[in-house]
Amino acid sequence: MGQLAVGSFSTDCLVKNATNIIGDEPAFGKVDEANCLLLRSSKDGDLFGIHQAFEAGADINTRLPMWIRIRGNDASTDEKTALKVAPTATSLTPLMFASCEGHAEAVELLLCLGAKLDLRDADGMQALHFAAQSGSAACFRALLEAGANPLAKDDFGRDPLECVPLVTISRNSAHRRWLTLLKEASGIDRKSVV
Questions:
Q1: Cα distance from N-terminal residue to C-terminal residue, the chain
Q2: Is residue 11 scored above 80 in pLDDT?
Q3: Is residue 135 within 8 Å of 174, Cβ to Cβ?
Q4: Helix crossing, 137-145 with 127-134: angle to 10°?
Q5: Alpha-carbon distances, residue 193 vs 176, 184, 189 (angstroms)
Q6: How far, in Å, CA of 191 to CA of 66, rounded?
Q7: This prediction's pTM
């Protein structure tokens, strides 16, 4: 049991091969690092990290996968060409991550920095769907006030309000907030409903 079936594994050859492929240049550029920081900070609700990433040149609407730029033998291949042949990313944006985790301050900051409201993930969900799914009334309100469409449908035909967990609405402390948000989103006059 104590012996390796295949033998010991050495990473020396991997490091040498990687060095031969990418040369002295880093696999990730500064913008890639900034984009990673923005995604991680948005998920964590780290406002300082979001500011830091944005100042470092991060794309406010970045998504995974991150593309590793590997230098090829053909010097005519530039970054723009490589990005054109890359498939369209449908993973979560920083705004979606912050909404999904219920970080209202991060959502507001990302909106102030120009995050787009109508981008969709692989299932057609927008940031408003994620805010509803997280049960965060504060995120939901911030997105609504920024102009998010409460009637936008995902690929399963659900609008954001259908993503709010029923248990969230039925809790006494959250009931009033969600009832108010539901009325506002559906256009029902507050005075006509008790």
A1: 70
A2: no
A3: yes
A4: 160
A5: 12, 11, 7
A6: 49
A7: 0.70
